[in-house]
């Protein structure tokens, strides 16, 4: 089990290996609607509320496809040992909870590996994953064996119970004997894979990991050979990569090895840098030809760290290189700085981060860092109080405003906003069924009147789900919003809130 350490130290040390680059705020895409501007102005003129923010949804103007939302299945041992582990699974991936469709796992560096047979052993031999954590047999396992067993349980139960469609696994470090400094778990002093001796072995290790889970009846849909490859100062398990070597390893070693093992459908994710802008810089100089999913994390940029910022990036930058039609995923984000905040302020930080990465930077998927923790901390969606009861910070609610309503396969559609009043608004549609979702975040201290217009389609009543500072439910339905005679939906967005409006195209 990794020691939970303040992540800002890790991000700060990026300065040692990454050149400071300019950060440009993502700008809201304000493409001209396909309908004439006069029509838009006419709709605005019939707005029912004076001074209201006007949001016009255009059904036919689409952007990226959404692949979904997820969380990391850890920290593994506390998750597995928790007396409430079954409930936690349901709260995260179950139908009564967040309905997450992505589970992020970890390629542990401690697996026994037979280099001759290419077999990776992912759990202790002869031990059932249903072993009671309080049993003597479990207590006699080593710390590494407990972590290995726990991960198989988490992933397998999530797949069996909720049919979680997508499991990815990220690699913090190769086995130590494959690194340039074989005695260090960290990436300090640029400690990483020994390319001269271990490139083939590491590719086989990753492939063996996927094959062993396959033998357990679990499909690992995607694998990432690195996690925050620029981090060379933190004490936890990490491996240094430069973009050139990582691209070469994926193209020349990992993809061929997966293919030779019959794993052609296993996708490769890269490069999972600590911040979205860092990933832009890293991936732009990398051979991406065999990378299936381009990925970065959602933490603050270097320039933000210099000025004392921590946690969620509140102004991520659009990537500047051509992605070639490949999906872009946020594979980790949380608030890793400051005091524990389970209230609306903490939730709104996540809401801003998600909106800007999805609506301004065109990310296709968003994966939160920790699903649960055995104590109270901003890095988890579900925390555990000192009395053992579970606590759901507002970040849990915010995640649900996206994950419960926007399903894999939805398309983001254009929202033209007039008189914004600080509202962050994005919209998504399911082309086959006609369902659509509007997510509205108000970070301000005053309620904002909002009028919604529809272009290219009509709808009946919109169900309105809200989370505010005082709401006790996670995403309570506060009632239906009906259109007026002009087809305008008028409502008020509370101060410090996030709202999801769900409707159906007629």
UniProtKB/TrEMBL annotation:
**Keyword line:** Hydrolase
Taxonomy, superkingdom? Bacteria
The keyword Hydrolase is assigned to this record: yes
A molecular-function term among this protein's GO annotations = hydrolase activity, hydrolyzing O-glycosyl compounds
The segment(s) forming the Glycosyl hydrolase family 30 beta sandwich domain are: 412-501
List, alphabetically, the Gene3D superfamilies matched: Glycosidases (3.20.20.80), Golgi alpha-mannosidase II (2.60.40.1180)
Q: Where is each Endo-beta-1,6-galactanase-like domain found?
A: 61-277
InterPro entries attached to this UniProt entry? 6GAL-like (IPR039514), 6GAL/EXGAL (IPR039743), GH (IPR017853), GH30_C (IPR033452), Glyco_hydro_b (IPR013780)
The protein's matches in PROSITE patterns, at most eight in alphabetical order, are given as: PROKAR_LIPOPROTEIN
Matches recorded under PANTHER family: ENDO-BETA-1,6-GALACTANASE, ENDO-BETA-1,6-GALACTANASE-LIKE DOMAIN-CONTAINING PROTEIN
Name it. Answer: Glycosyl hydrolase
Species this protein is from: Sphingobacterium paramultivorum
